[in-house]
Each structure stands twice: as structure tokens, then as C-alpha cells.
Write a structure and sequence with these properties.
Elements lengths: L1 E7 L5 H11 L8 E7 L4 E7 L3 H9 L6 E7 L2 H9 L4
Length: 90
């Protein structure tokens, strides 16, 4: 399953979160594949992760939870969304 994870960095956490990112690189756990990560210019960003282990994703984000605010949602690709939409009777 794929997940969209967006984050914001409160101003008070910017310096510490930058230092932690530079030190660790923020790699995902072994059972989570990061498909991409983008850093915005307004103190936040977004990543797309793929995993069947929600606990591993939770663990990854929990490591940063003291500094960042996360919004996480499962998602589907266009083809999958199209399959669902084609079954809806309106």
C-alpha cells in the first residue's frame, strides 16, 4: 500500500530537525520503501512511501514526531482509482 506523508516544521524545531536530518539522512526502515521525498520552501514537505507494514511506517514517523507535524493518508494510483470509479453507479 502507498501512503502520502506530508509534514510541517514548526519554527522552533527548524534548526534541530535540520541537524537531525543531516546527521541521519532520515532513511526509512527496511520494510518501508520511500518512492520519493520532496522538501518545500515553506517549512515542510511530502513523501510517498510504500509498505504493507503500517507499524514500520508509524515507527519511522514516530522518530521525528517530537520535531515535525505529520499528515498521513493511504492512496491509490490513477489506474486503481479508475477501477473503483468505474464500478460506481450514479
Amino acid at each position: 500500500m502507498k501512503f502520502i506523508v506530508s509534514w510541517t516544521i514548526p519554527k522552533a524545531s527548524v534548526a534541530v530537525s535540520e541537524a537531525r536530518f543531516l546527521k541521519t539522512g532520515a532513511p526509512p526502515p527496511a520494510s518501508v520503501k520511500m518512492l520519493g521525498r520532496w522538501h518545500g520552501m515553506s517549512g515542510g514537505g511530502v513523501l510517498i512511501a510504500e509498505t504493507d507494514d503500517a507499524k514500520a511506517l508509524y515507527s519511522w514517523l514516530a522518530f521525528w514526531n517530537d520535531l515535525l507535524e505529520f499528515h498521513t493518508t493511504p492512496c491509490v494510483e490513477d489506474a486503481e482509482a479508475g477501477e473503483v470509479m468505474s464500478t460506481i453507479k450514479r
